[in-house]
Amino acid sequence: AQSVTQLDSQVPVFEEAPVELRCNYSSSVSVYLFWYVQYPNQGLQLLLKYLSGSTLVKGINGFEAEFNKSQTSFHLRKPSVHISDTAEYFCAVSEAAGNKLTFGGGTRVLVKP
Amino acid sequence: GAGVSQSPSNKVTEKGKDVELRCDPISGHTALYWYRQRLGQGLEFLIYFQGNSAPDKSGLPSDRFSAERTGESVSTLTIQRTQQEDSAVYLCASSLEGYSNQPQHFGDGTRLSIL
Fold first, then answer.
1. Could you report the per-residue pLDDT of A31-63, keeping only the tens digit for each?
2. Residue of A43, A94, A98 with shortest CB distance to B108
3. How far is B109 from chain A (nearest CA, A)?
């Protein structure tokens, strides 16, 4: 069975500062990796995904993530955050031969002016 | 185009009552998923529909939970004899064909509160 761990439940950060959200997964098979963002009272929106190829993937809103197979990690980064990036961020994994997403517990990002 | 639509957006009901939640997926999406999101937690998979195949019900927490889908369109999630621990946001998602490399598109959820 696969599992996803987001090490930080909350990350406060000042506007225009960089942010990194950590995600580690466990799986015995090949996986696809996703980051979703959830704004208050809304559903989840896809930020980016890793399927294959380059381990550095770029997504919307200036976010990027790096897949590290040896460390089973998929950390999300943004070099300079905005107030509008205040939201909850979820890392998710699916087995290549499967059909379900397994989500981490989420990281709440609070951007302060 | 239209996204995934869920109704109602909020539902408050008394313990012991039955509730029915509705999801309209994106047109043309054959795969549909239901998730539960408890306060401050991640998403728990509940059930998955793919075309006319038998649904994957492996995530349903008890026999009080059931879901149906008519063809490749609307789905309803029913919770019978609701309990306070059923209070959560119920999210629906759809994807084009249900392959694991295809992103899921989420609705805004139904916030269910059991008094």
1. 899 999 999 888 899 999 999 889 999 999 999
2. A43
3. 6
